[in-house]
Write a structure and sequence with these properties.
351 residues; alpha+beta; 2 domains; 5-stranded antiparallel β-sheet; 21% helix; 25% strand
């Protein structure tokens, strides 16, 4: 590749072909178009064939989204995460007061919002275990400053003083450092049926291979992209991956690399920054976890740690209305897409 700009044609926003696409997405599109359902051992819902067959209706939010909605730029923006083990009793929103009570939930919500931290519930796949202590995972997602710690607490109120500190600097030293990727798969059925039907089998399959690194989690943002998965501490978020592809993504992260298929974005960045990083990764082939940082602006600049830099121009597509959640009223969708990538320093090749 030379150093000239790369034009990324519209209306196809899957740039280049295959980025943000998956076998699951193709299957889901077929389901939405034909009304067919996927059952049995070859289903994303039951890759092993050991569970009862499950189906996803053609009119669910995830099936309709997969028709034409691109994945890049859809990860929730979160420079930090606080994940609390809470086996059961999740409300529609984890901090709506259903699980933790209105007063504590409101205070945790306010502190998390002020700090830019995403607060989530986690639980072990297939297990409803109540213990005297609860596991907490803390993570910061910023490239070059990522960290993750695991600690045990006896009461959720202990998190009130911890939440504001997560993105304030280096690891807090409150728990045990976590060196391997933590895998969070959304299974928040009370929030949306797609998360439960599509997410739980993926979480179970991943737990069979990766053990205690895997958790079911509450809403990740965007259940229409189910099954949805977050890898900590980087915050790389995935959608529409089957169990085998999800395992490939975890293996890549364990090796210090980023798996591009199904990638929604790194939650450090806003939507435009996520799109910009993904398209530059695709064009350069650079795949190490912390290869890139993004200068967030109307026209983002993506910088490689070797000194190269690219300006990524953006546009918004206007897609037909569809429900953001199953049963919700259809709303227009305006995904952010990259239209041109121009080298500022260096080119697309390492030279």
């Amino acid at each position: 590749m030379g150093a000239g700009p790369r034009l990324l044609g519209l209306p196809d926003a899957r740039f280049p072909t295959g980025v943000g696409e998956s076998r699951t997405a193709a299957d889901t599109r077929k389901t939405a178009l034909t009304g067919e359902t996927r059952e049995g051992a070859d289903s994303v819902n039951d890759p092993s064939g050991d569970n009862e067959p499950v189906t996803i209706a053609a009119t669910t939010c995830s099936a309709l989204s997969a028709l034409d909605e691109p994945l890049p730029g859809t990860a929730a923006t979160a420079p930090g995460y606080v994940c609390l083990e809470f086996p059961s009793g999740w409300g529609r929103d984890v901090l709506d007061g259903t699980a933790l009570g209105p007063e504590l939930a409101a205070e945790l919500s306010a502190r998390a919002d002020a700090a830019g931290v995403r607060f989530m519930f986690i639980r072990r796949p297939g297990r409803d275990v109540v213990r005297a202590t609860r596991t907490v995972l803390l993570a910061r997602t910023e490239p070059g400053a990522t960290w993750c710690e695991r600690l045990e607490i006896t009461h959720p109120a202990e998190l009130l003083d911890i939440v504001p500190q997560v993105v304030a600097g280096p690891a807090l030293g409150l728990g045990t450092p976590v060196g391997e990727p933590v895998v969070l798969v959304c299974a928040h059925g009370k929030r949306d049926q797609c998360c439960a039907v599509l997410g739980r089998p993926v979480a179970a399959a991943l737990a069979a291979e990766f053990g205690d690194a895997v958790w079911e989690c509450s809403h990740t943002g965007g259940h229409r992209f189910a099954p949805s998965m977050i890898l900590l501490p980087t915050g790389y978020t995935y959608g529409r991956l089957d169990a085998a592809q999800s395992a490939d993504a975890v293996r890549a992260a364990t090796a210090g690399r980023v798996y591009l298929p199904g990638l929604r974005g790194r939650s450090t960045w806003d939507a435009s920054g996520q799109v910009a990083e993904i398209v530059v990764r695709a064009l350069t082939g650079a795949d190490e976890l912390d290869d890139f940082t993004v200068d967030e602006a109307a026209v983002p600049v993506v910088r490689h740690r070797d000194g190269r830099a690219w300006r990524v121009e953006m546009d918004k597509r206007d897609l037909p209305p569809r429900p953001a959640s199953c049963g919700a009223a259809p709303k227009p969708v305006y995904p952010v897409v990259a239209t041109r990538v121009t080298p500022i320093v260096g080119g697309f090749d390492r030279s």
